[in-house]
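step=encode ok
step=design start
structure_in=
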């Protein structure tokens, strides 16, 4: 049998008109805004009609600590939703939108893979409906208005050495991390050091994903802190009178995007904050639509459970009053062997010793979900042809000791049919009663919150703040931000802040070097290790392999 790439599978699929998918969901045509034949936006005002309708069951898909071997979290999410449809359940997917940076870089897109994809995958991975461009425009409008205010006399007394707002672009471009602008004389602005973030790291991305409507969006945008005055007072977007124009740019981006899986399951794809920098979840609005329009809403959080799931539960669920009924933790035999020290080239060989050594990574994520957060969980093994029965049995044995079942997921090759076993276990778990717990209280101090996340979730010995971070913690408390949740900016490749520490490391401290308030989003960002808000392209970026022919057919896109 010849191997087909993801894009070849997607291009060969029969895709239903988006009007049929909307009809399947019961969406009235007055809320449907078509973007071509196969994608559309749904007006968030639809939710007003469903105020009294009970929510469906929310299922969170997360994963072990990522490795170069791949885990397949989005693929599993899509396949699970299709699997639920196979057993007669009305499921709806809610995913993040891909960023062009990783698409052209090394990570790839975010539309799933094999026969568990959302389509049209080329559109989803390239521009989609323009949401990220709108976010970038709003971000850069605020930057322009700030610099113009300074140029026009600086009535607010902005300290140009304490400007915190950076411009953004949705691309991996290390050349833009640190720049000097405003050069060329008085007419061209005030010279200062500046820099760019990737759009998915912009606070506006987080604001959009946590806003419930236009009024909430404008209020959050107005709270964004862009700088501090010479007296040390925050200068906000509202002070610059920027929030109205920013909201005007974002009014359509606020509406969730509707597409479908290869099997016709409705899928909302909306928003895309990075999980190692921001909170890593799709929009609250899209999740709420999925809950109102389906009996099961299947969503995911970025990277491993120590990042995406922790932020989903501690930030998004707190903000929106959500609670998952079940959690799926995705793993592969290959990835666990990598955590056990096996080189990527040798991951196809049976190695029970290495698997045993790597298993603590999975088991620690399982314990975090079930014990720290108190939620029912299932481990989904994304099966590869090289996995042996002995390896699979070992994982099942170790998980059962923690009271968690294992379900084989074969959705990449079989679509929804390969997700039936996982779907059945998820349905069973959703009937269990549980109470969502949090590792810290909102009333805890900033350093206490950091300490509890580090100890309870990362299993660190504790947390250490640099002198600058300690000073920032005191300032944030004085400004009234001490009650906000924490958004950890940490490497995705380890429980620790050191990407080289694989498995389930112990005996380490997490070093917080910088604390920054995202007042609009409503959380404090804690930067650890060498985490950066503007990635760079790899030596051989994916962009080198992407092309389009004279008929408009795209190739090389995964």
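sequence_out=
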């Amino acid at each position: 049998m010849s191997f087909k790439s993801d894009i070849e599978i997607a291009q060969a699929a029969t895709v239903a008109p988006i009007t049929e998918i909307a009809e399947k969901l019961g969406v009235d045509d007055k809320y449907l805004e078509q973007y071509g034949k196969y994608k559309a936006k749904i007006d968030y005002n639809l939710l007003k009609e469903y105020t009294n309708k009970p929510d469906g069951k929310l299922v969170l898909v997360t994963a072990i600590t990522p490795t170069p071997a791949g885990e397949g979290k989005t693929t599993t999410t899509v396949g699970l939703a299709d699997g639920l449809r196979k057993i007669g359940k009305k499921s709806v997917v809610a995913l993040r939108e891909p960023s062009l940076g990783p698409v052209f870089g090394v990570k790839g897109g975010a539309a799933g893979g094999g026969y568990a994809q959302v389509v049209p995958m080329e559109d989803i991975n390239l521009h989609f409906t323009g949401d990220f461009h709108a976010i970038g425009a709003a971000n850069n409008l605020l930057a322009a208005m700030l610099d113009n205010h300074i140029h026009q006399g600086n009535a607010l007394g902005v300290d140009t050495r304490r400007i915190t707002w950076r411009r953004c672009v949705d691309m991996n471009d290390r050349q833009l991390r640190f720049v000097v602008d405003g050069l060329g004389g008085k007419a061209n602005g005030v010279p200062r050091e500046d820099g760019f973030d990737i759009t998915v790291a912009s606070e506006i991305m987080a604001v959009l994903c946590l806003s419930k409507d236009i009024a909430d969006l404008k209020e959050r945008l107005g709270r964004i802190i862009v700088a501090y005055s010479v007296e040390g007072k925050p200068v906000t977007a509202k002070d610059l009178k920027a929030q109205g124009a920013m909201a005007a740019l974002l009014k359509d981006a606020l509406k969730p995007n509707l597409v479908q899986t290869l099997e016709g399951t409705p899928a909302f794809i909306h928003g895309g904050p990075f999980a190692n920098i921001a909170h890593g979840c799709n929009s609250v609005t899209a999740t709420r639509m999925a809950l109102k329009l389906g009996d099961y809403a299947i969503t995911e959080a970025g990277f491993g459970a120590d990042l995406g799931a922790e932020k989903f539960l501690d930030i998004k669920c707190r903000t929106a009053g959500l609670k998952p009924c079940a959690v799926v933790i995705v793993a592969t035999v290959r990835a666990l062997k990598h955590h056990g020290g096996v080189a990527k080239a040798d991951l196809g060989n049976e190695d029970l010793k290495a698997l045993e050594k790597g298993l603590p990574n999975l088991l620690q994520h399982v314990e975090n979900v079930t014990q720290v957060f108190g939620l029912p969980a299932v481990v989904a093994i994304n099966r590869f042809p090289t996995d042996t029965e002995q390896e699979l049995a070992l994982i099942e044995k170790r998980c059962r000791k923690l009271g968690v079942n294992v379900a084989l997921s074969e959705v990449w090759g079989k679509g929804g049919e390969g997700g039936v076993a996982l779907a059945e276990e998820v349905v069973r778990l959703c009937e269990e009663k549980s109470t969502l717990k949090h590792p810290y209280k909102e009333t805890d101090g900033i350093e206490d919150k950091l300490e509890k996340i580090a100890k309870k979730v990362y299993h660190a010995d504790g947390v250490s703040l640099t002198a600058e971070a300690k000073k920032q913690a005191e300032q944030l408390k004085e400004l009234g931000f001490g009650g906000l949740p924490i958004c950890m900016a940490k490497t995705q490749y380890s429980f620790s802040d050191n990407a080289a520490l694989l498995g389930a490391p112990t005996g380490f401290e997490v070093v917080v070097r910088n604390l920054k308030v995202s007042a609009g989003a409503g959380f404090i960002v804690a930067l650890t290790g060498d985490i950066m808000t503007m990635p760079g392209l790899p030596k051989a970026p994916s962009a080198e392999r992407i092309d389009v022919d004279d008929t408009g057919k795209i190739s090389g896109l995964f």
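step=design ok
step=annotate ok -> The longest helix spans residues 131-151.
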